[in-house]
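writing this on my phone so excuse typos. first protein, seq and then structure
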Amino acid sequence: MVKTIHLHQRDSEPYHDPVSYRQLVGRLLYLTNTRPDITFVVQQLTQFMANPTVMHHKAMTRVLRYIKGTPGQGLLYPTTSTIQIKGFSESDWETCPDTRKSILGYCMFLGDSLVSWKSKKQNSVSRSSSEAEYRALAIASCEIQWLTYLLTDFQILYKQHALLYHDNNSARHITANAVFHERTKHVEIDRHVIRERLHNKLLHLLPISTSAQIADMLTKPLEPIVFNQLLSKLGVINIPSPS
């Protein structure tokens, strides 16, 4: 996506063929199962399937050009990966111009292999960036819990603490602080969710710099250089197609 463009409901005139727009977005949704690099932009395009505009169609055309230029790109799963869950959680506050809701993103690794990722608009409006980041942490911790259950179902012995990386100091401090105060009353439920998992030693919550936050590409448009740097950390490689 173009970093400076924020798609919204009335950014241009209606697109003349909304049916074809919906069909193409539906196909792109299936592609996100193997292409995490387009997850955020497809999440954005799905917001406007009822009444797409010309600007939305241009954004989708840009995605199609990107896919056409990278036919051999996909996830690489190395055989040397260890049984260690590592997660990255991020949120972009008030991203949606229409609803002012925030976008959350997370990506989960089993060793060095990306196994789960999501870009999603939060269900409610957050009153602060700390609240948005904290809700993203809670949802990421739920995904970690589910992955541990999945490993158990596969009869894979897993006793290590999962590692969850987050770059917002305020959200991490709220998690560690056992005292409720005015700015955290409205996030009490999410606070209990993440604190319970920390107390049960399911995961460790660790700081990370914003420049190294892989989940950043699941919450906002990025410059090409930053996008490609984070893409390599996701384990996405581009195998040249045979001539």
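second protein below, same order as before
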Amino acid sequence: MGMIEEGLRLGEINGVNIPRRKRSSSVESKPDDDGASISMMEVATIMIAMANANGGYYKRKRKKSSTSKQRKKSSTPKQRKKSPTKKQRRKSRGKEMELGKSPPEMPAAMRDRIVGNGGIEIELVIQKKLEESDVNRNNGRLSLPAKKVRREFVREEEKKILDEEKGKNEKKKKGMEVGIVDDFLRESSMWLKKWKIGSGKDYCLMNNWNCFVEENGLRSGDFVQLWSFRINSSDRLCFAIVKLSHLL
């Protein structure tokens, strides 16, 4: 006990201020005592205070760290945004193309070829997704639904020709021959007719359509553009067909 009391002097112990104990004037100090020793009761009180102080500090530190982790954990899912997959991007792009929003321009090489051959009045007629009925050999035609046609491309005298019946058979129309240009700038011809499909009448490209499908590798689900133009010298109606599926 004497050693403990001798080792504890007035001042600070681990940051805890130790007050000086007043000694009675009636008690004579010993020669080796400087009046700074404390009792065991005071030592116990100081040690308890130190333990409480240290315990409270670590407890607060752990609580703050736990709260920080919880905030970080709770905020992480809100900050993360999943990027669209390739399939979703293709689907979104395909939907935009089917609706015809911001349609691509005609390829420059094709336009130059048409203009070089005297082509004028180049206009986009329709942009559509090919259905199974468009590539089926038994049908042998490309339908141009009236609701999806962007502009009227036939003139009044041509409409009369398309409405004329071939003989007494109402299903057979005369139609008119038109010029065709494909992606490879190959030129051919087809017949444009007007058929009653459902409650309305749609334009159809036929005769040599099956060959065009094979030569250009068209499949159901492909997107195509149909551009109309006329030859300045003869005023002949022609079409350019562009495959767009490579853009998806």
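The longest helix spans residues 40-79. thats all i got for now
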